[in-house]
Amino acid sequence: MSKFNVPTREEVSSNNQAIFDNLEKAVGFVPNLYATYAHSENALANYLALSSAKTSLTAKQKEVVNLAVSQVNECSYCLAAHTAIGKMNGFSDSEILELRAGKASFDHKLDALAGFAKNVTENRGAADEAVVQKFLNAGWTKENLVDTIVLVGDKTISNYLHKTTDVPVDFPVAAPLEAVEA
Fold first, then answer.
1. Fewer CB under 10 Å: which end of the chain, C or N?
2. In this structure, are residues 55 and 147 in contact, taking their beta carbons and an 8 Å threshold?
3. CB under 8 Å to 46, separation ≥6 — which residues?
């Protein structure tokens, strides 16, 4: 059972109602986690601005980071959402599982990205020098490194919000990684 309710459109501020309307038009529904941000007058708009900000990473590369970070942080909501979004970005089920584990045997550059995202998350920002070097040697730039760290922060915010509120997951549930790896 959820620790927090998922606010309805009628229960949020007029500013958040407008954002709900835009999400409804763009996505077809208001995801429960986004609705949960609307318990705050400003958090939903602030989070959406951060998550949609310009970056040197493509949408597909962002999903690599989102999957690795959400796995480290064990966020069932974000794993479910980003598994669905990862599929929309062209990743297969097996590739998504690899990305969640912080690797990508199917693409050496994405392997370095997934490994870096996993390592920086596990080490709370203190990435191992060898992992940073592998990232840079794979052709990523210092700009990409900075943008990846910003994305790790972005995804960690959502991971923490879900783990604290435990609102219902409204995406198809992602399989537990250990069940697949066993």
1. N
2. yes
3. none
From 75, 123, 125, 130, select the one nearest 100 (Cα to Cα). 75
Whether the full predicted model's pTM is greater than 0.90, yes or no, is: yes
Q: Which residues of the chain have pLDDT under 50?
A: 182
Look at residue 182 in the predicted model and tell me its pLDDT.
Answer: 38
Q: What is the DSSP string of 6-74?
A: ---GGGS-HHHHHHHHHHHHHHSS--HHHHHHTTSTTHHHHHHHHHTS--SS-HHHHHHHHHHHHHHTT
Q: Residue 114 and residue 102: Cα distance in Å, rounded?
A: 5
pLDDT of residue 1: 61
pLDDT at res. 178? 76
How many CA atoms within 13 Å lie on the side-chain side of 21? 7
Q: Where are the domains of the chain?
A: 9-51, 59-181
- pLDDT value at residue 3: 82
In this structure, how many other beta carbons lie within 10 angstroms of the beta carbon of residue 10? 7
Homologous superfamily (CATH) of 59-181 is AhpD-like (1.20.1290.10)
Q: What is the 8-class DSSP label of residue 171?
A: S
pLDDT computed for residue 154 by the predictor: 98
User: Using alpha carbons only, how large is the chain's radius of gyration in Å?
Assistant: 16
